[in-house]
Amino acid sequence: MMCDRHAQARVQLEQEKAFGNDAEKEDAHPEARVPAPPVSPEPPGVTTAGNDAANISNHTRKNRPKQRKDEKDSCGNLDKPFYASEVSDHAAKNLSNLTGGVKTQKGKSETNGNYVQGPRNPQEACSEEAVKPAKKRRPVTVDSAKAKTSLEALKLSIKQLKWKEFPLGRRAACDIYWHGVSFHDNDNVSSGQVNKFPGMIEMLRKINTSRAVRTMQELFPEEYDFYPRSWILPEEFQLFCAQAVMQMIHQGAPLIRMVKEKDATLSPTFIVKPDGGSQGDGIYLIRDPSELKATVGSQARQGVVQEYIHKPLLIDKLKFDIRLYVLMKSLEPLEIYIAKEGLTRFCTEPYQEPSQKNLSHVFMHLTNYSLNVHSGNFVHSESQSTGSKRTLSSVLYRLAAKGVDIKKVWSDIIALVIKTLIAVVPELKVYYHAEIPPGKPGPTCFQILGFDILLMKNLKPVLLEVNSNPSMRIEHEQEVAPGVFKYVPSPVDKEVKVGVIRDTLRLMDPGHKKPSIYQLRPGGLEHSEEIPMESETPERSPDEGALPSLCLKQVYPKYAKQFNHLRLVERIAGLFIRFLGVKGNMRLGPTAFRTFIRSCKLSNSNFTMAA
């Protein structure tokens, strides 16, 4: 019985093909067509059964006016021959019925198994598609099990986006993994996206950041004049002592390059920062190298000593700094976004130029929130423009009211951010390729960074440091009773940080990702002139209709032409990665070094292994 049905199906298909071929021949003779009957707005369904279906389909083909190949239908789509879809669709339907297959068909099925064909008019088909609701996309999944202090802001962001959160993790893979500290918070991630880069913590330690920026200062001194002169401890302790003494003898102004005003009454002041310190821990000021606490117990203290920035810009007689949130959306190719809104953190004691008497006044000289929050003068404000923590826009508004060119300030800050990341990217790529070698399955990465920037009195921005894990907490610690502290909501933090996290997620939405035409070269080396330029705002999905516009502005590659000449060290890093040889390795061994020397034709002699 089944064989008879299959045989009947094959005969049916051959007949349908024959009718299609006849229709092509008949289309060549327009005079043979029969005028088609008028079509009603809602034509009744045509019941077809057996071979009669082919005859009715053939009659419809002959009655349809011929269209040119490039003619468009009422929906704006290029129209294909009408009969082609009818023959193939109807043959498939009859084959399904004959073989007992269960398939969803367009139109309706009667109780006798015959098929009732729906309207074929193009305008009606277009109107049907317009009425049909858009296919609801699968919500993006976010693993927040390791989010730690950023959890509350992350939860609010996911809720606003109508995405799906997995606070306890998930056995199946998620689209996005949100880590609180490092890439290695969860080592079982092999796909999706992680909000941390491998090696970012190491690269943004104070010593490594200082070393990277100093390398660029040697290559491009005028481009990197936004970073104070610094010495690495303990290895440059003797050099620091010698240069500090010479400076004291000559009673010169601070050595920082951007200060042009000479003030002979100022003697040098230095600020000491431990390498792995955070939240102001271990920072102190000195005026003499002998005051340096060079050791911790029996071990040499690793850190950086920098020239103290004199003449900072003051508001309400208070020193302040800027916390700017920067998204590194991609490492290869390099893609950087800057948040349009940031925070300003104020000292809680009126500023005076450093002297031997006030060096220990941390509430006067250090802008760290974690220190000043314990001052009796710290002001928690519901307003974004008052208190000890304010929005960046409120401060810029006050400066603009005094005639300051805010566009110039923003331009200088953007340049500082791009140049700083260009300095740290080369070694970051080495870490990245060691952790996720090309060809090895692994997640893609992105990361929110915190730039701490000081504005000088002449409005020149100065880089203080870059934080790999900026605090995204949206509540602050408040003393509710003597010695009793608890966390209460902070409107200023919530306004800024939720927007940054939410719009970072929007930019990383896997549904918005477009295939990149950017091709990586071996070892991750890239040609900057080939960087694709993308619009700042991605297309919104229907779920994003109620969301505000993005608070993150793309600055690279948007302004790539102004900075591509600075990516010299990145090319060197590309060569280094190329000749490493062993995947996951970070050191160039003797064999790899000899290969490098020969390939680059740096020497004609043959090196021995010992040499």
Automatic annotation (TrEMBL):
* Keyword field: ATP-binding, Ligase, Nucleotide-binding
Name one process (GO BP) from the record.
Answer: microtubule cytoskeleton organization
Compositionally biased spans, kind Polar residues: 48-58
Q: Where is the composition biased (Pro residues)?
A: 35-44
Q: Which spans does this entry mark as compositional bias, Basic and acidic residues? A: 1-32
* Ranges where the record places region Disordered: 1-77, 97-143
Is the keyword Nucleotide-binding assigned to this protein?
A: yes
- SUPFAM superfamilies noted in UniProt: Glutathione synthetase ATP-binding domain-like
A single GO cellular-component term on record: ciliary basal body
| InterPro entries membership | TTL/TTLL_fam
* Key word Ligase present: yes
Gene Ontology molecular function: ATP binding; tubulin binding; tubulin-glutamic acid ligase activity
Q: Identify the PANTHER family for this entry.
A: TUBULIN POLYGLUTAMYLASE (PTHR12241), TUBULIN POLYGLUTAMYLASE TTLL11 (PTHR12241:SF154)
- From the Swiss-Prot or TrEMBL record, give the protein name: Tubulin polyglutamylase TTLL11
